[in-house]
Amino acid sequence: MSLVFRNLLKKVGSGAHTHQDLTRAEAAMALKLMLEQTATPAQIGAFLIAHRIKRPTAAEMAGMLDTYQELGPKVAAIESASPVMILSQPYDGRDRTFPLSPLTALVLASAGIPVLQHGGDRMPTKEGVPLIDLWRALGVDWSRVPLEQVSICLAKAHLGFVYLPRHFPAAQGLVPYREQIGKRPPIATLELIWNPYQGASHLVAGFVHPPTETIIRDALYLHGVQEFTTVKGLEGSCDLPRERTAIIGLGRHQPEPWQRLRLHPQDYGMNSSNIPWTTLSEAGEAMQQVLTGEPHPLTASVLWNSGFYLWQGGKAATLTEGMALSQDLLCSGTVRQHCQRLQAVVEQL
């Protein structure tokens, strides 16, 4: 048993009226003791559920991010005219709406914007489809790529992926606790703002509840991150919705450090229902249809989503131009060819 960890546990788990928030340094220490398994399983499970009940603060999240940056894998910087875009998604996946970010990442990469993603296998508590399975459906198995080769893939094909079980086994060691406590712990929010890339980047983090966005924003500011985007996306991802207004936060440098952007799909002819999730095999067929230019309802959602990120990535002056560029890249076969190039690079690595 760790006496140091027990004292940290007592602070967050003392009840609604007597609990105390951890300092940034204490939160960093707590997560480090959990990742290194210095804390006992009983202590780890108790902390994760108590911290969820208490609700994390921005300072605590910043401290946990300190530990991820200290102990986690680091993808070496590449030479690139555009910052690497970090497209996040909750690690426990999606089970209601079709995930768009793999196709979005391919569109961005084919336009010259490097994209880095990270995640693991199917994970409690949602057990939804993870990014790694969607990429496999596209013919790309990121689980086989060693960490030192991820930056090479990022340089050659403008795409990379950090796979938790292989590249960050200490974090993978905390996954069973999610199933045992039956709830998402605060580290699920931490994963949305973790950036394993060492060079210039632009983080995009999805969220569901406004308080989570506030924690994300303030934790990133505590880390000195000024350029980032938050999206009230589909199931907490960075995929823009089509059945409602897209609510977006833009973290920018001074003099306007925080801006709110609301995009109405109907203003762009994009208002419709979101594409529902069915099965992985059907998803693979749908994604291939989009890449080959065959008519499919998924295409419009990809144009809406990738058009926004082409705009934010500086490849288009407006959202409308971003969607037009996305359509050109898909219709010309450029994105499909880039996917084939990615498959070849990963296979070589």
From TrEMBL:
<keyword id="KW-0328">Glycosyltransferase</keyword>
<keyword id="KW-0808">Transferase</keyword>
<dbReference type="Pfam" id="PF00591">
    <property type="entry name" value="Glycos_transf_3"/>
</dbReference>
<protein>
    <recommendedName>
        <fullName>Anthranilate phosphoribosyltransferase</fullName>
    </recommendedName>
</protein>
<dbReference type="InterPro" id="IPR000312">
    <property type="entry name" value="Glycosyl_Trfase_fam3"/>
</dbReference>
<dbReference type="InterPro" id="IPR036320">
    <property type="entry name" value="Glycosyl_Trfase_fam3_N_dom_sf"/>
</dbReference>
<keyword id="KW-0057">Aromatic amino acid biosynthesis</keyword>
<dbReference type="GO" id="GO:0000162">
    <property type="term" value="P:L-tryptophan biosynthetic process"/>
</dbReference>
<dbReference type="Pfam" id="PF02885">
    <property type="entry name" value="Glycos_trans_3N"/>
</dbReference>
<keyword id="KW-0028">Amino-acid biosynthesis</keyword>
<dbReference type="GO" id="GO:0004048">
    <property type="term" value="F:anthranilate phosphoribosyltransferase activity"/>
</dbReference>
<dbReference type="InterPro" id="IPR017459">
    <property type="entry name" value="Glycosyl_Trfase_fam3_N_dom"/>
</dbReference>
<dbReference type="GO" id="GO:0005829">
    <property type="term" value="C:cytosol"/>
</dbReference>
<dbReference type="InterPro" id="IPR005940">
    <property type="entry name" value="Anthranilate_Pribosyl_Tfrase"/>
</dbReference>
<feature type="domain" description="Glycosyl transferase family 3 N-terminal">
    <location>
        <begin position="7"/>
        <end position="71"/>
    </location>
</feature>
<feature type="domain" description="Glycosyl transferase family 3">
    <location>
        <begin position="95"/>
        <end position="334"/>
    </location>
</feature>
<dbReference type="InterPro" id="IPR035902">
    <property type="entry name" value="Nuc_phospho_transferase"/>
</dbReference>
